[in-house]
Amino acid sequence: MGVRFKGWGIAVPDRIVTNDELSLTLDTSDAWIIERTGIKERRIGGSARTLGALAGQRALDDAGLKPQDIDFLVLATTSPDRMLPATSCLIADDLKMNCPAMDLNAACSGFMYAVRTAQGLLETGNKRILVIGAEHLSRWVDWTDRNMAVLLADGAGATVLEYDPDGNDLLSSSLGADGSAADLLTCEHGGFIQMDGKEVFRRAVRVVVDSAEKAMFDADIKSEDLSLVIPHQANIRIIQAAMKRLGIEMERAVVVLDRYGNTSSASIPLAFDDARKNGRIKVGEYALMTGFGAGMTWASSVVRWS
Ligand code: UT7
User: Fold this and answer.
1) 262 Cα nearest atom in ligand 1
2) pLDDT tens across 173-201, in order?
3) How many CB atoms lie within 10 A of CB 187?
4) pLDDT one-digit tens code per residue, 17-53
5) 27: left (phi over 0), alpha (psi -120 to 50) or beta
6) Which atom belonging to ligand 1 lies closest to the Cα atom of 267?
7) Global pTM exceeds 0.90
8) Annotated catalytic residue 262
9) Mean pLDDT in residue range 61-69
10) Concatenated DSSP letters for 79-119?
11) Residue 19 known to be catalytic
């Protein structure tokens, strides 16, 4: 059976926070942040609910669908508005949807986990799934901690996945999790996000490369067949290192972290949207979507655009 990506939408807060603005209150600099991360500015504001609902509505509009056409809502978020109820229920209410809704937390791999989950839901009889990745990470950042404050940001992206008996866009998925690395990137109840950046960096490159190679093997393609790589947007140096090890030129990677920072579950759809707006998504071509994050989790998928 097949799965089609039908429509896409994004939402980001209006408020732009530049590196220079952060340097006014933190012992950091525009030069350090750009050199070590590639980030120039980020968007701060909104909530997982408001950003997620807007991105979801835009994906529905893009697909030419109504909320009632959706059988299931899966929201990937690591920064839900409340512990209870699930933010997906709040978004479903905003969009006037009356279908099942659930949150999924796989941190920065969340969007790809949600896409794979949606594929499973389609395989068991649902016709259309709205998948949203939405984050309000700024709420969980200690704004006096330069280690995290320069990296994380807010945003949302969404897509509609539709059952299609005659074709398939989602060719393979390779997902994984390693809870023994849980303390490398963590946020306690009522606390702030903390990270062993160096160790996360080292492991991130490894799991991206391993899962990407497995996804390509399962899809029966080689790295030279990929016209585009849409990676999680954490650090430009992680993307460069992974692309180098995969033997793929950087020109084929989509990079938006300079404008959006690290938006966790939202970063892959934000990158997709940018690639589409710039005419980089071409019918019939292969792309790799790949993410990694707290857990640690990782997820790579090979897609072919129809
Ligand atoms: O979404 C998934 C999770 N996130 C990630 O994947 C992020 C993974 N890690 C990273 O991106 C990088 O490790 C960081 C960007 C977090 C840090 O970069 P780094 O090259 O690993 O820097 P570092 O931690 O080794 O720090 C180098 C120096 C240190 O000073 P000393 O000890 O050399 O004097 C830090 O104290 O840079 C200092 N530093 C900063 N300086 C200015 C750390 N953060 C900052 C800062 N501004 N914001």
Assistant:
1) 1
2) 999 999 999 999 999 999 999 999 999 99
3) 18
4) 999 999 999 999 999 999 999 999 999 999 999 999 9
5) beta
6) 1
7) yes
8) yes
9) 97
10) S-S-SSS-HHHHHHHHTT--S-EEEE--GGGHHHHHHHHHH
11) no
Q: How many residues in the chain?
A: 306
Catalytic-residue membership of 189 = no
From the candidates 89, 136, 187, 232, which is the catalytic residue?
Answer: 232
For a mutational test of ligand 1's pocket, the pick from 23, 32, 36, 147, i.e. the residue with the most ligand atoms closer than 8 A to its C-beta, is 36
pLDDT tens digits for range 126-153 = 999 999 999 999 999 999 999 999 999 9
CA 58/CA 199 separation, integer angstroms: 37
Contact 79, 50 (CB under 8 A): no
Is a pLDDT exceeding 80 seen at residue 1?
Answer: no
The DSSP element (H or E) to which 159 belongs, if any, is: strand 154-164
Letter for the amino acid at 252?
A: R
Query: Bridge-partner residues for 101, per DSSP?
Result: 73
**Candidate list 19, 108, 126, 187, residue with the active-site label:** 108
**Residues in the ligand 1 pocket, defined by CB under 6 Å:** 28, 32, 36-37, 108, 146-147, 150, 185, 197-198, 200-201, 204, 234-235, 238, 262, 293
